[in-house]
Amino acid sequence: MILLVKHINRCLIISLLTLIMCFPFSFQNAVFSQISFDHYIDVGNNNVSQGVYTDFSTRVLVQSGSNRVSSGALLSFSNAQKNIFSAYFLSFSREIYERNHPINIEGFYLCKPFSEDLREFNVGFIADYRNKHFGFNLGFNSRLYSFTRAAKLKYNIPDSVSTRVWVPINLMYQLSYFQPLNKKMLLEVRVTDFNTYTILQETNPMILTKFTYTLNDKIQFYSELCYMQAGLLNIRVNYFGYYLRGGVLWQIK
Amino acid sequence: MANKIKYFKARHLLLLFPVLFFFNCYPDADFTGFIRSTDRVNVRFEQSDEWNKNHPFKNLVVNTSDYQILVAADSHIGGVKNFNLLLDEARKPENTAFVLVGDIVTGKKEDYLVFKNQLPDFAKFPYFLLTGNHDIYFDGWKLFYDYFGSSTYYFTIQTPAAKDIFICLDTGGGTLGDKQLAWLKNILSTERDNHRHCFVFTHVNFFRNRHTGSTNLLVPEINVLLDLFVQHRVNMVITGHDHIPFVHVFGNTTYITLAALADFDRNASYLKLGINEGKTGYEFISLQPIK
Predict the structure, then answer these.
(1) CB B28 within 8 A of CB B134
(2) Is residue B128 part of a domain?
(3) Model ipTM value
(4) Which range marks the domain in which residue B225 is found?
(5) Which of A18, A127, B84, B99 is deepest in the core (most CB within 10 A)?
(6) Confidence bin at B1 (pLDDT 50/70/90)
(7) Three-class SS of residue A2?
(8) Candidate CATH numbers 1.10.540.10, 2.40.160.40, 3.40.190.10, 3.40.50.10860; the one for domain A2-252
(9) Does residue B177 lie within any of the structural domains?
(10) Looking at the 3D structure of chain B, how many domains does it have?
(11) Domain assignment present for B78
(12) Which residues in chain B are contacts of A151 at CB distance < 8 A?
């Protein structure tokens, strides 16, 4: 329990420190107009998790005018992964208008220390357009796998040997359908190859349904159910995994 | 509004025709796999595991400290021109065995029979086969299993100086599945330290080098495997699937994606994998040089 609290504190501290460091860059209109906190818990299972896993994410979003900075961290608890602190995310986005349609352009950085020895880094950008019923996201990311310095020493890897693999470009996409159920409830169905801390290859889409309940103008609750498959474009679809997410988005105006 | 809905539905019906036409015109793919495969990776693994219980893992003995095996991918038989060139090379005395890392055939029975008839006598010349996605189209796994048995196993090569282990994995379904992954972890934990070098063969390549429709293992699965191969000092991971050769050195592990061996591939090649003075080495052998 103490370990969990320590890690949650670490998550929040990293997210807040990053935002403070980024403050001068996002500072446009003298004061932030809006700060939001997004927390969620995932419970899921997949082919590599060795049973049920639980993820806890905390994310801080700061909006100033049409600019937004977001930072988040992920804690993972599973039989398969020794690293509890398993992902860190930072993004900058700006809303622009193209023929009176708002389009959100986002650049992001994602670091995943997925084992004691290895890291996965991603950078990319993505554009997001949404109307009443449909949402479209399209972008690219570049992925780098790398050894940690400690792992290079541990495995006696000389400097002449490459300890990095770069996957230059990967398409990111998301197609969403929104169906308002009433003024407070929204249902969403999504096909995508990414979520906040996971970017799959372009040929591995996942299917997701999301239910959002708006309690008031400050608090939203949401739940998601995601199904991940393997082998779609090999025309050999197999189950890979699922997760169920419950979260809350809290806006401080 | 009603007219709009009718128009929308009519357009979708019209779209069905070219889709169905496309499905019928491409003969080597089983499009039922878009919805659900006719076989499941865990079921295939269980059958392979059962087969392994009755057929002990092979140990090849060579009298020299150096040896060489040939590895090829994506032969896509029907056509056997390139496969026969590989066999001619494989019969030379310096080669100990050959390995085909998936997409050996199209999955159709007639192609399985063509391939089976071309294969040499295992006692005279050992070979090792594993499935790719094409091999399991059209319920092809049943034929693979009937003719060749397991697709998840290992074999060893014993020299006077040391013993090397070669692990074959089934990624024809785009994932190892949880059971096969558990088996792999167990083999690496129990066997790796008893062997000098460790090689892993599987069909689906790990790193995407280009935009292509072929699917790789999911990122979370790749991450687990990368870590596993680092921990257990796997020397080489040899895959196919992409049809374009590529080599990634990642610490002490070299990830090799092979070119296709298929007759229709203009840049067909295979790999000579060798142990020389105790060290691992490889060489791509081109069958049809680029003109």
Answers:
(1) yes
(2) yes
(3) 0.89
(4) 38-286
(5) B99
(6) low
(7) helix
(8) 2.40.160.40
(9) yes
(10) 1
(11) yes
(12) 230, 251
Residues of chain A positioned with their CB less than 8 A from the CB of B213: 203, 233
With cut-offs at 50, 70 and 90, classify the pLDDT of residue A28. very low
From the list B37, B181, B208, the residue facing A47 with the nearest CB is B181
Residue B97 lies in a domain: yes
Tell me, yes or no, if B274 comes closer than 8 A to chain A by beta carbon. no
* Domain positions in chain A: 2-252
Whole-prediction pTM: 0.90
Alpha-carbon gap, residue A107 to A127, rounded angstroms: 9
